[in-house]
Amino acid sequence: MLRPAAGGQSSVEATGDTIGDVVKSLIAAHPGLETNLVDENGDVRRFVNVYVNDEDIRFLDKLDTKVADGDEVAILPAVAGG
Amino acid sequence: MAVYDSVLDLIGNTPIVDVSQLSPNPKVRILAKLEGQNPAGSVKDRIALAMIEAAEADGTLSPGRTIIEPSSGNTGIALAMICRLKGYRLKIVLPESVTVERRQMLEAYGAEIIPSPGGEGSNGAVRLAQHLADENPDWVFLYQYGNEANPTAHYNTTGPEILRDVPEITHFVAGLGTSGTLMGVGTYLKEQKPDVKVYAVEPPSGERVEGLRSLDDGYVPPVFEKWGGMELLDGKRIVRPVESLEWTRRLVSDAGIFAGPSSGAALAGAVKVAQRIDEGTIVFIVCDGGWKYLSTGAYTGDLEATAENLDKIIYF
């Protein structure tokens, strides 16, 4: 989803102790991502879902959610079903 | 057994079956509510009937009118059955990336299918239906994603049925599509029993929905926002196709329940909850039967190949 802004890669390495840090490191490496991911307050945008090991961070500690080595972070647009 | 006047009288009051043999924790029971037992085969029978009755009651819908609705399948099929009986014309905006059985069922009930680009998924079908409804103001646009009758149907029926049959419930798990089931059932359960936890599962979508060009194309149903989904839900996770399939197959092999892959995803979510809690009773929704997914190889095909296949279709 973020591939065009991330140099065509579907999976990238990023570092940080929290999701907020991971997002910052991602944006530093791929500046094109910034407007897609976060709003002017630095919060994850409404139509974007961020998951750590498949759990939505909005129901964890949001951008303060801790991450460890090897954790998988997924960034996807919200979709509907029905 | 009673004799019913119409299949519409068979909607709701679905059975709940104990499938605790699938629980990873001997102190946690897992119970399946079988929504595939509804007459058009899915949980969507409830909201389709409720939306039509609400539109009839407020005068939006009258004999001879045409209904338009975007649907990845189940809502469309339920509406098609009801429209057939009530004499409304129905147009369903259906993404091309759904199983052939969904299309066939819509045709069987006589609905007109308006295809929307498969790559744009459900979000694309919603956009096209909105556009067509704007251009044709004489058509009735039910809009399940924003229709109050959708969560209200679950608040009035599904939720009370669950609490009536399982008063000891501690956790509720269901798939997130329009969010109607989770908002309606979740709100009812928490009002009646505030300690109940409510968890959503959803399919991963990023890779599959190639037509979504940026995260700006994401879509959050108005129902989710109006009913305070952020505050109501206690957690939300994605379940990948291979995991959905594994649990869909376990439902068949270990419990004899032939369900669609999104029910396997809900079960996978229930199992994750069971691993984390000490004890409790989890109710999850089996939203439809497996009939409409036979062509995908979901039950007997090679697991990896079928999962890859599932990644390209919409099953929520």
Sequence-ordered SSE layout with sheet pairings:
The complex is a heterodimer of chains A (82) and B (316).
Chain A: H1 19-29, H2 34-37, E1 48-52, E2 55-56, E3 73-77
Antiparallel strand pairs in A: 1-2, 1-3
Chain B: E1 16-18, E2 28-34, H1 44-57, E3 66-70, H2 74-86, E4 89-95, H3 100-108, E5 112-116, H4 121-135, E6 140-141, H5 149-165, E7 171-175, H6 180-192, E8 197-202, H7 222-226, H8 229-232, E9 235-238, H9 241-255, H10 261-276, E10 280-286, H11 303-310
Parallel strand pairs in B: 2-10, 3-4, 3-6, 4-5, 7-8, 7-10, 8-9
Antiparallel strand pairs in B: 1-2
Helix pairs in contact in B: 1-2, 1-5, 5-6, 9-10, 9-11
Please explain how this structure is put together:
- Chain A has 82 residues and is of the alpha+beta class.
- Chain A is built from two helices and three strands.
- Chain A has one domain: Beta-grasp domain (Ubiquitin-like (UB roll)), CATH 3.10.20.30.
- In chain A, strand 1 and strand 2 form a beta hairpin.
- With 316 residues, chain B is α/β, with parallel strands linked by helices.
- Chain B has a six-stranded mixed sheet with strand order 1-2-10-7-8-9. A four-stranded parallel sheet of chain B has the order 5-4-3-6, with helices on both faces.
- In chain B, helix 1 packs across helix 2, helix 5 packs across helix 6 and helix 9 packs across helix 11.
- Chain B has two domains: 184 residues, Rossmann fold, CATH 3.40.50; 98 residues, Rossmann fold.
- Chains A and B meet through strand 1, strand 2 and strand 3 of A and helix 4 and strand 9 of B.
